TrEMBL record:
Its EC number is 3.4.22.-. It comes from the Eukaryota. This is Cysteine protease. The keyword Transport applies. GO terms for molecular function: cysteine-type endopeptidase activity; protein-phosphatidylethanolamide deconjugating activity. Keywords: Autophagy, Cytoplasm, Cytoplasmic vesicle, Endoplasmic reticulum, Hydrolase, Mitochondrion, Protease, Protein transport, Thiol protease, Transport, Ubl conjugation pathway. One of its GO terms (cellular component) is cytosol. Its main location: cytoplasm. Cysteine protease that plays a key role in autophagy by mediating both proteolytic activation and delipidation of ATG8 family proteins. It catalyses: [protein]-C-terminal L-amino acid-glycyl-phosphatidylethanolamide + H2O = [protein]-C-terminal L-amino acid-glycine + a 1,2-diacyl-sn-glycero-3-phosphoethanolamine; [protein]-C-terminal L-amino acid-glycyl-phosphatidylserine + H2O = [protein]-C-terminal L-amino acid-glycine + a 1,2-diacyl-sn-glycero-3-phospho-L-serine. PANTHER family: CYSTEINE PROTEASE ATG4, CYSTEINE PROTEASE ATG4B. Transmembrane segments: none annotated.
Length: 393
């Protein structure tokens, strides 16, 4: 962890640049060459919203913490993966942040949804307080699954984005469940049947001048989060190729995970290294100015991103995907099916048309644990264990 007083400016020269390699660099579904597209890579990384520890924000719950240093890293990673979904939803994957350039209103609307105050949709305040319902006291560390469950609940209040959030449990993605969730926007027969026609929910986040057919979209944009356990104490090498392929898909939102009790937001890979944004830097909380503008530079990582060996990844992760349209989802399903044919790549999860009549716990570990791992195994197969946190042996 970095000392709490450092900001990204003081760290700028301590980060390694990208290695000079012929291997392609993949960032959230985009392929780059280090030799010819280094500036494009860094611009893409800088354009992601970067959420770090903050200090001196309003007390959570009125009397709680005013900083999340030391406990909020997974909450910040959850914010980052969800912010990427909102960027894709409202700005598009091709949108770029350029320092000093005036940004469109939708950009500030997205950013404001994550600002450290109680009335922002996805603020640290909302996540921490909603987590109490998931059995987490304020200031307690989250696992990938817990933060996914909390974000799903918070998204129901975000009528501007009107997202369908699905968390696939038991290593299984059920296509029928997702279609039912995303097709819940049914157009109405006439104006009298729809008194709420002017609401954001039916506009599905679109401006009013968009045609009625677009406004009453039959597919709510999908955020799909898949909590996974890819090994017992370390990642099983058989999953590495499949994990890499997830970053190659155009629907990729990246991965939240990290090392034990130290969370990162993984946005891509090069060779055998994962590329990630690190929340472990404490910055002062940002207040909107009197004019309503938000100083936003500290929400963009302006140094080369961190890298780490894939083999060091903690096996507890959550993988994210965004499907703006039904065609995007169908394409994603086809890509996942093709992945099962890749030689040497073990599927991380199962894709099925409908819910199996009975679930048995799949042997996702492909390991024969010894007796010293008994407690850890019992915890892993306990259906009450939602947060996949790592226990010290």
């Amino acid at each position: 962890l970095f000392p709490a007083t450092l900001t990204y400016d003081t760290l700028r020269f301590e980060y390694e640049d990208f290695p000079e390699t012929k291997e392609p660099v993949w960032i959230l579904g985009r392929k780059y060459s280090v030799f010819t597209e280094k500036e494009e890579i860094l611009l893409d990384v800088t354009s992601r919203l970067w959420f770090t520890y903050r200090k001196n924000f309003p007390a959570i719950g009125g009397t709680g913490p005013t900083s999340d240093t030391g406990w909020g890293c997974m909450l910040r990673c959850g914010q980052m993966i969800f912010a990427q979904a909102l960027v894709c939803r409202h700005l598009g994957r091709d949108w770029r942040w350029i320092k000093g350039k005036r940004q469109m209103d939708n950009y500030f609307n997205v950013l404001n949804a994550f600002i450290d105050k109680k009335d922002s949709y996805y603020s640290i305040h909302q996540i921490a307080q909603m987590g109490v319902g998931e059995g987490k006291s304020i200031g307690q560390w989250y696992g990938p699954n817990t933060v996914a469950q909390v974000l799903k609940k918070l998204a129901t209040f975000d009528t501007w984005s009107s997202l369908a959030v699905h968390i696939a449990m038991d290593n299984t993605v059920v296509m029928e469940e997702i279609r039912r969730l995303c097709q819940s926007n049914v157009p109405c027969a006439g104006a009298t049947a729809c008194p709420a026609l002017e609401s954001d929910v039916l506009y599905n986040g679109c401006p009013e001048d968009v045609g009625l057919r677009e406004r009453l979209a039959l597919w709510k944009p999908l955020v799909l989060l898949i909590p996974l356990r890819l090994g017992l104490t370390e990642i099983n090498e058989a999953y590495i190729e499949t994990l890499k392929h997830c970053f190659m898909m155009p629907q990729s939102l990246g991965v939240i995970g990290g090392k034990p009790n130290s969370a990162h937001y993984f946005i891509g890979y090069v060779g055998e290294e994962l590329i990630y944004l690190d929340p472990h830097t404490t910055q002062p909380a940002v207040e909107p100015s009197d004019s309503g503008c938000l100083p936003d530079e500290s929400f963009h990582c302006q140094h080369p991103p961190c890298r780490m060996s894939i083999a060091e990844l903690d096996p507890s992760i959550a993988v994210g995907f965004f499907c703006n349209t039904e065609a995007d989802f169908n394409d994603w399903c086809q890509q996942i099916k093709k992945l099962s044919l890749v030689r040497g790549a073990l599927p991380m999860f199962e894709l099925v048309e409908r819910q199996p009549s009975h679930f048995s716990n799949p042997d996702v570990l492909n390991l024969t644990p010894d007796s010293s791992d008994a407690d850890r195994l019992e915890r892993f197969f306990d259906s009450e264990d939602e947060d996949f946190e790592i226990l010290s042996l």
